[in-house]
């Protein structure tokens, strides 16, 4: 050892200079450098703990914001601590600080501030907190890149990989702004665990300031492998999020759906038909049809639909099943006739049985705006009913089949409201038909009460988005889109472009889950818009026996709302056969294994045979 290194320093009596005044800070820096490894280990363990809490503990939005803020703050401290790593001048207290070190410390300070803001203000709201988190992650990624290119740094590729992984996690926070979703928690929680472990590994492997010994090769490989795994997982989560929320490309209506120049003026006139081969049940044959109908305001329009018939229909008139389908979306491309499973909607199993086993013909309207030019009159009862009746009228002029003018009407969900309205306007709009029964499964019978009950729930936000996207065009005088809650216009536009079936159905629901507030403000529900919602309630009278089926585990159409609607009809002297099914949700109610399926088929056959109905107004659920 050089003797000068151990000799006491001579007393300095020179006047204090600006550089000398930094002495305490230099000594503090040197102290931190000596205790750097233990500090990093404790800090790394704390960040890992935050990630584990994210992954394993169920938390409220506010708690998630608090924990996230703590984690970001700790990450900022880690950036400040490691800003000069690899630059001996900075770590041993030198006043010389390269620009990259300064930038890294500025970014570290920003992380500390952002984390503190999130932790101290957890009630700021999910979108703002998500924005802060996105900024923090981008700042951390930049700090990681800056550290990778500072003087004396090694493993720059590893640093860049870790930075890209962080940016991928930032993308996840953009996709999932509401902080309660599992995907968000998994992505951010795993990121915290990764950076915490990375900090611990660096602490154990940090080269000694005295010897400047190189890191062991296994440490370098461990860091590179860890960063690469983090990148793969983060990119997979980000890509998966994009795929889930993006939905699938919509089918494009072809020339069949474009009406000719000389459209007949009479509603219910068949324009054209063509055979269908995809999704047709065994023992049946099908066609898509294009026919005339009317818009909500009574102006002429064109709609499409489907016809399902027995494979060998015979010459005699066949019983007619008039079907009003449930929610599939609100834009062209969402129509059942364009779907790969065109006859699976609602009570699809029961409908196929009625056709293939009992010899009925089922006709379903796509409604305006789902295959043809819109706007689609979503949950506008009278307009839907006219679309449905005009499809059945068009089949009367279909040369391929001979159908009866006696009919039974079915509908599920949106179609349940539609079937009730179809029955309600039968005598005035379609007097040539004799309605023998009206069946509605989980119908949106009281739209205003439904909007009130589910306005803050995920499914309710999705349905509200569909209403907002269409009613602004159907009822322009209401100015619906200009009256939505702040931040809802963008989600409404994105949800409105998604269908509600198959993969797109999941995307629409997930998009709805990311809307932080109810879409319709209370003031809108209390005004003319709310009045218009109330006008969509089918109140009767109905020309035939009515069956209403309701699953008691339905998260969308609340059983209590249905109970109240049925009771009001019974109190008005309208008999209703009301059947409830414990444990069944909105979709399960009409599933192939539902007890409703065989009951519905028998109830329909009984109506056709003229058997006495079975109303049960005296046995309604107690409210």
TrEMBL record:
Residue ranges for the region (Disordered) are 1-23
A Pfam family of this chain: LIP
The source's superkingdom equals: Bacteria
Transmembrane stretches in the record are 37-57, 63-81, 102-121, 127-145, 157-176, 182-205, 225-245
What protein am I looking at? Putative inactive lipase
Q: Which stretches does UniProt call biased (Low complexity)? A: 1-17
Provide a GO biological process annotation: lipid catabolic process
Q: Which UniProt keywords apply?
A: Membrane, Transmembrane, Transmembrane helix
Q: Which organism is it from?
A: Microbacterium azadirachtae
What GO annotations for molecular function exist for this entry?
triacylglycerol lipase activity
Organism ancestry: Bacteria, Bacillati, Actinomycetota, Actinomycetes, Micrococcales
UniProt cross-references to InterPro entries, sorted A to Z: AB_hydrolase_fold, Lipase_secreted
